[in-house]
Design goal:
Helix content is 23%, strand content 24%. It is α+β, with helices and mostly antiparallel strands and 378 residues long. The strands form 4 sheets. Strands 2, 3, 5, 6, 8 and 10 form a 6-stranded antiparallel beta sheet that branches. Bound molecules: 2-acetamido-2-deoxy-beta-D-glucopyranose (3 copies). Keywords: Hydrolase, Signal.
């Protein structure tokens, strides 16, 4: 065989090999692995660097085509033995899944798409969030999708609520945690993005209160919720970078004071702390409407309602108006919650009670002039 023949043979063999690989492509379905820094993951709420969630309601949203299976690979900073997450597929109701460090298959109820060449690829939105005010750490390492699935950009709603509060906003005692609480329900009803920075037991004043080392006037500005103190692997807080909230909150709702009152913080001191807090919020949220809830109080079996800090909230709103800030509004919730709406043993709203509060606030907001989005942005 001459040199040129050898070369020709080599070329022919190479072509044959190429043809063989074309004829028999590697059909083994390979899952699509998404790294936790993929720009198509829409993160919301408060995440630390690991990255891991703090605060009830923090989570992420995915928009994908040809999706039918989803696995979350979670890291060692995930709550042990598990954290409860809410999952919603295509805006259906949130259901609960308990996840742990390692691989977690999330049931989506979507059927397999075999013809991935079809023109109209099915698109799906999956929304996931930590539900608990404690045991709420989800340390996301990677996301695994089925072969053929592809992440698409998620466009957030133009409306974005930030709720600030205590147990009455965080969904304490509810089976699905914050996902059944009035702030979350209100956000859903308006087809809005929503973040709930609420900590059961916490005062607004920066005092130790029912196991919380800090009040909301401090911890609101931190990445971590007050659970950090009980967390061996992350026993510290870090400043929250508000630039990470995309879009920035368009509406702020504050319902706080119960734990200040139970620590005998008197009205004058509470008003002063609240005004300092609002002034600091205004360095981040220059013009956004701030809704100041009066307490609905603690309803009793005999029909009476235990009130606290009465009159303080009107003073706060008046003081802001006097400063020229007209974008602070009093939401008078007197009478919103009766004994039938609470768990009898702890007087916190029950599941229908939270829905009732959400309905009343939605009506209040509509009267005020805010309309729900007509459709979800993604
Ligand atoms: C998740 O765990 C909680 C508490 O550990 C339990 O009460 C709940 O039933 C579990 N949920 C599911 C869907 O397994
Ligand atoms: C896709 O194929 C699998 C098995 O190959 C089958 O079980 C499934 O029903 C098919 N799905 C659809 C939507 O045809
Ligand atoms: C966190 O640190 C504080 C002291 O700064 C300590 O009292 C507390 O026990 C620590 N928590 C854990 C879970 O280690």
């Amino acid at each position: 065989m001459g040199l040129s023949n050898l070369a020709t043979t080599t070329i022919v063999l190479c072509l044959a090999a190429a043809a063989a690989s074309l004829a028999a492509p590697d059909t083994k379905p390979r899952p699509v692995v998404i790294q936790n820094n993929d720009p198509h993951i829409y993160f919301h709420g408060r995440w630390d660097k690991s990255p891991g969630t703090w605060w009830a309601g923090s989570g992420f949203k995915l928009h994908a085509e040809n999706l039918h299976s989803l696995r979350l690979n979670l890291g060692p900073h995930t709550t042990t033995p598990s954290a409860s997450i809410g999952v919603s597929v295509d805006y259906q109701p949130f259901f609960q899944v308990n996840v742990s460090a390692g691989a977690n298959d999330i049931p989506l109820g979507l059927s397999e798409v075999n013809d991935t060449t079809q023109k109209h690829k099915p698109r799906t939105v999956v929304r996931i969030n930590a539900q608990g005010w404690q045991n709420n750490r989800v340390n996301l390492e990677t996301i695994q999708l089925n072969h053929g699935a592809k992440l698409l950009p998620y466009t957030p709603s133009k409306l974005s609520f930030h709720f600030i509060g205590d147990s009455l906003s965080a969904g304490q005692f509810l089976p699905q945690g914050v996902d059944q609480a009035w702030p979350f329900l209100t956000g859903e009803a308006f087809k809005a993005e929503h973040t709930v920075i609420a900590q059961p037991g916490a005062a607004l004043t920066d005092i130790v209160s029912y196991g919380n080392q800090h009040g909301l006037s401090y911890i609101f500005f931190r990445t971590e919720d007050d659970g950090y103190y009980y967390t061996a692997d992350h026993n510290y807080t870090t400043p929250w970078n508000f630039a990470r909230d995309v879009p920035a909150a368009t509406h702020l709702v504050i319902h706080i004071g119960a734990n200040d009152a139970s620590h005998n913080i008197i009205s004058d001191a509470f008003v002063k702390t609240y005004l300092t807090f609002v002034a600091r919020l205004r360095t981040i949220y220059h013009k956004q409407p701030i809704f100041v809830f009066t307490p609905w109080g603690w309803p009793n079996a005999d029909g009476t309602v235990g009130q606290y800090l009465q009159g303080s909230y009107q003073k706060i709103v008046n003081a802001r108006h006097a400063l020229g800030d007209r974008n602070v509004f009093l939401v008078d919730t007197t009478g919103w919650v009766t004994f039938a709406d609470v768990f009898p043993d702890n007087q916190h709203p029950n599941v229908p009670g939270h829905q009732k509060i959400a309905n009343l606030f939605e009506a209040w907001l509509k009267d005020w002039g805010l309309s729900p989005e007509t459709h979800w942005s993604t």
